[in-house]
Inverse folding.
């Protein structure tokens, strides 16, 4: 289930790292819950229609919009209930409208656009820290597939024969990053192609792909 959220224009500059506020508001609206420490079976997109104001941040002169998708529809219902009681998003932006969207009817392959960069991170056994992978790395498809299989298994769904890959025919892939709680993370802005059952594709549409969907990466359109 997907909840589209329409926002009014801001009255103060929105920082480039606004995703921290998105996550904070999400958990505030959900109230006491267990999803914060669990595998993220949800995803959300970045804000649309922002204009840079130099190095200060972003301005949304005509307002903005984003979506939150959850595998469990009960979470969407809780979000709606809470937002109706408190529609403040921050920086003077208020939630003006909510629209629900059910999972589309998928076939066995679908090309998804992305609502936020697809982030892939893996730890390195012989080196400190982790390595990021992007649309042009040969390991990307394997890691994207493994991440989706892990989430399907966690949800009790079949993960057999599902596969995820970046669309290699896309002409304008790029990368984009954001600082989240002092750590800079960067992902790929490139469509992904998913092969699997209609149920697996609908699941991916909700939970996103790659790592860190719970902090705003890897949402699918």
């Amino acid at each position: 289930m997907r909840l589209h959220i329409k926002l009014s224009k801001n009255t103060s500059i929105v920082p480039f790292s606004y995703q921290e506020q998105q996550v904070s508001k999400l958990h505030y609206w959900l109230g006491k819950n267990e999803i914060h420490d669990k595998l993220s079976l949800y995803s959300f997109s970045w804000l649309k229609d922002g204009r840079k104001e130099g190095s200060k941040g972003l301005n949304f002169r005509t307002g903005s919009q984003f979506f939150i998708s959850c595998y469990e529809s009960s979470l969407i219902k809780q979000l709606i209930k809470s937002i109706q009681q408190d529609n403040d998003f921050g920086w003077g932006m208020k939630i003006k409208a909510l629209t629900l969207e059910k999972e589309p009817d998928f076939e066995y392959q679908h090309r998804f656009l992305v609502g936020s960069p697809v982030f892939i991170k893996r730890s390195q056994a012989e080196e400190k820290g982790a390595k990021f992978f992007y649309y042009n790395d040969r390991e990307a498809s394997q890691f994207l597939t493994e991440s989706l299989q892990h989430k399907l298994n966690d949800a009790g769904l079949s993960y057999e024969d599902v596969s995820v890959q970046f669309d290699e025919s896309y002409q304008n892939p790029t990368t984009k990053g954001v600082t989240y709680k002092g750590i800079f993370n960067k992902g790929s802005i490139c469509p992904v192609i998913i092969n699997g059952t209609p149920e697996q594709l609908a699941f991916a549409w909700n939970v996103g792909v790659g790592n860190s969907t719970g902090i705003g990466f890897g949402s699918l359109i």
